[in-house]
Amino acid sequence: MMQKSHKKMERYVLFSEVAKRLSFAKAADSLSISRSYLSNQIKQLEKELGNSLLIRSTRQVRLTPAGFKVLEKMLEINSAIISLERELEQNQSEISGLLRITAPEMFSQSHLTEICHHFKQKHQDIEFDIDVSANLHDLTQSRFDLAIRSTNTPPENMVAKKLMSYQHICCASPEYLDKFGQPEHPLDLVEHHCLSNPHSKTWPFYDGKSRLDVDIQGALCANNQFLLLHAAMQGQGILKAPDYLE
């Protein structure tokens, strides 16, 4: 049944091409089909409708009253399809609604707020709900639409796109370095005051080939990176932080 309906729709389209050009030859050339196939399909359509749609002669093709009605309806259908495509294209370019994002604290403050601002300027009807955390979330189960995370192994059940590359660097204020000296090797950090997250008491270092883990110590640890950054700027110790904060 579906195949018959499809073929019948094809015959309507073929007829409309002949009706618009009033020529089997021109319509066949436009459609890249043979004139005989085109003629047979129009005859089949006339048989199915029980009406003659075209008046054929050796010199010209004319429309019957029934042919005019079919052409008029086909032009309406074609116009409706064009209107639908334009509407869908417009809807695709218009972004609106609430976008829920979860992102780490330092990235949110250094990059995400500005990104959201620029995006809002292009799409006025968008709203943002930002969760500032580094907690793991399964986007298929959580309320978030987008998660920004630092990882080399994104979850396989999610679509991931690389946004940027960065490195962690050790930094300290000039006052701290003047007082305690500048470490020359990662192992020198064991003799310094290091500012760290409670869950990051071991700092990894890479030389391109191997990894070196250094157990650090210090008088201050906190689960807030900006608190640690502020402490480092005050000269309280050495901080290992992403270089995009420079």
UniProtKB/TrEMBL annotation:
Keyword terms, alphabetized: DNA-binding, Transcription, Transcription regulation
Superkingdom classification of source: Bacteria
GO molecular function terms attached to this record: DNA-binding transcription factor activity; sequence-specific DNA binding
PROSITE patterns per UniProt: HTH_LYSR
Domain (HTH lysR-type) ranges: 13-64
Pfam families in UniProt: HTH_1, LysR_substrate
One Gene Ontology term from the biological process aspect of the record: DNA-templated transcription
InterPro entries, per database record: LysR-type_TF_proteobact-type, LysR_HTH_N, LysR_subst-bd, WH-like_DNA-bd_sf, WH_DNA-bd_sf
Family, per entry: Belongs to the LysR transcriptional regulatory family.
Protein name (database record): Transcriptional regulator, LysR family protein
The species this protein was found in: Vibrio ichthyoenteri ATCC 700023
